[in-house]
Batch of 4 targets.
Target 1
Amino acid sequence: MVCPRSLPAAPEARTRSRPESVWTSSRKSRFARLCERLASVRALKASSSFRSHHLRHLDWARGAVRSRWSVPAQCDGELARRLAPASGMSETTCDSAACLCPSAQPEMAGSLLFGVVTGSVDRPRVAYLAEPQPVTDELLAMSGPVRPTEVFRFAAPCAMSQCRHFDGVNCRLAQRTVQLLPISVERLPPCRLRPNCRWWRQEGRAACLRCPQVVTENYRPSAAEREASGL
């Protein structure tokens, strides 16, 4: 008679549960350490030494980037006339397919690089490219060691209702720019976007005369610039 083999008894499960109070205390401790680290990083970034170091890099990067591109210093009258669209154009002819936003982000679909930020950190000015360039990884890498939006201006098809600045008819960012910022140049800049630019079609010459002072990332904005940005 064959007896079936008996299976070994299952070992008692070892429980490593810890009291809830211990887990809660541990989580709180880790969270507190994380908060301390974040606070120290914020303090470092807010320190004058960190900001001056970053701004020195920014000044160097803007100079280096501009040297790689052909940017006309001023726009003569003939070029301004050639770049100006027909007088009958207005925001009513501007749709998402044809109208370009001159304050776009590089990751937006169809984005173009059309300007290089020059000047100083305190007084940045945009120099416009002779020909806008499609955004590529190689082009964005040229901004190192700073972010592309610190040294470049980008345009992209207007997002219209998907943009927080759009009120259903007009771009409020363009409106605030014209209403709050002073004129920064006396003549129309040599901007190749102008025939399809929403700001031009909506606000006309007034927007173009203020556009060169608009920088995507401005570390020392004036009160008017901060209000115009809607931040």
Target 2
Amino acid sequence: MIDSTVERNVIEPLAQLLRQNNYELRPVLRTLFASQHFFDAQTMGAFIKSPADFIVGMHRFFFPNNPTEQTQLIPAMQRYISWFSTLQMNLMQHPTVAGWEAYYQEPSYHRLWINSATLPARHSYSDAIVTAANLNRIAIVQALPNPSAPYQMVRDLSRQIFAVELSDEQIQDLVDNVLMPGVPYYEWTEQWNDLMRNPNDMNKRRAVDMRLQNLLRFMLRMAEYQLS
């Protein structure tokens, strides 16, 4: 939110800095990114992700090792552009000189990214990512501080995925009704530790992986995941 206080204490000094540096952006951005305002809790989760933020951010988290060879990079970029278009953001093809409406059209602004067409498309895309055969969901969770403790594991995972903190009630619901539906929560600890003792047992691996797949699929469909 840009109010008179932000205008006076943040925007006006940055504008002055821009003029003093002959309109070079680097000093302005460096100052902004190091400011207390940039890390203000009120700015976290305040906007709906643009299609670019949504897709690229998801790929950076789940598939951090992007292709570098041109034969692989070009098809990957073409897939990105195709999905941007599906989510109503045609990259390099602004609808007007003002850009996309979500950046300037009051009073909705960023809310315009979500509608009856784009929300199901976002869900479809996130489903495809977290259920991909080449995604090592177990390795993602294994890297967390305490993956065998279900509530702590889900809390730590949520802090990596979401821009906002989930409530204790949401964490409990994710464990009890998504990760471990119909069975006691402590069975996750038994299943996880059993897998760690027998990492090559495919039946144990599939059982744990399916639970993680369901959890990630649900989490990426939550409203909180749409926020940046």
Target 3
Amino acid sequence: MAEEEVSASQEVEMGEARPLTPAQPGQAQASSAGGAAKAMDVDSGSMDARWRDIYRFCKHDGPMALYEAAGIEAGQEVADGLHACKVLVIGAGGLGCELLKDLALSGFTDIHTIDMDHIDLSNLNRQFLFRKKDVGSSKAETAARFINERVAGCHVTAHCCAIEEFDTDFYKQFKIVISGLDAIAPRRWCARPSLAPPPAVPPGAPS
């Protein structure tokens, strides 16, 4: 069993990163690692293919998209706003790798990630944006480079530092902030009221 795991690890390590440039939008394609990992193809010429699931929420009112309370009318403008907004993922480990992949393949193009940790050999079994050659490197920088090389039109900016090193103004520049943290102390720090965005006020409501 151990020999099989080592063999699979070596096979993945030999695979070369390839940008996601498909012939058919939405078609799954095996990576060069012998099918050990699969990646969704991205049609950079048609954003509709990348946004088809998010459009369901952006272009139609419903129980999962309460636009009326915020004074927003569902439609193309909402979808365009999401596409252009800045997103921050705090943590680039087990949760962060999945979040970064999902956001990039969903069509978000301006993503930032913060993580002060470096890659350990024990991370490789679940943090799939990293390879054996990356051991000892910054998680944030390695994850950002992996996404930037593979997803056309998406740019991930890495911040290899503690979350406390940034002030409130830094966090408030983002429309969406997602926590990929598992430790209690940093999660409590991120939950401080000073980092919360102001509530949406419908047009005509008293200030």
Target 4
Amino acid sequence: MQQVLVSLGSYGAWEVRRHGQAAFARIALDAGADGVEVRGELLTGAGDELTRIRSIVGEARLVYSSPEGLWRDGAFDDAAVGRAIDAARLLGAPQVKMAIGAFDGSGPVHELARFGDAGIELLIENDQTESAGTLDALRSFYRSTDGADGMEGPGLTFDMGNWHWTGECPMLAAQALGARVAYVHCKGVQRQPTRWVAVPIADSAAPWRALLRAMPKGKPWAIEYPLAGDDLVEVTRREIALLRAASAALRVIPAEAGIQGVLQPAVEALDSRLRGNDGLEPRP
């Protein structure tokens, strides 16, 4: 069965800061989540809050999400990495998710070994910035890390929605980086007049099923879109069930077809819609 986590920021930043992430971790687990992603930017009680979350989560899966980047102003941010590792240790999380930050292609990538030395797996996320969320930025980073000091580049947290904020095509990103994916942020998106917004995945204007089909099998998915309603356990349970059902229904692509066999039909359908050849009004 597909592993589904809940990123605790999905319950709304204001509410999460007000009640604490431990309370929402309990809601997510009561709804049947396989684990939670704890958001560093939403912590209000520092170490005490992390240990409370750890006691509630128990043996369920934990990911610590640092709001800081690995590089700042072109220099490796040793302090930010230290804070992320310390938080993960308090939480008992075996994985830390960070963006690359202001990596300029010349940083000391061997410093990333600090995560492995601490027994923690680093996951890189495509964020919503040009410096850390575009294909060019991530390709540059992986060119520098692959083979450096015998290392293999860190696994990727593929955020389905964030590519839209940076003007990238998620399908092409999946084609370029799919083999590196270790964790998937499931996020629906819609375009408002002046910005993109995150929405429940079933309401997404993007081809979310095609993207999930392009992801490597057996990797955990996380809900990272708004979860709101009078009964948060039921709302969360419904969204977890939706993703698990989608995973079970994904068509198996023959191995010889490769990722192109997954992506080409979706790309052609999108192109047809943009050209107005499918009977629908073309999008402006």
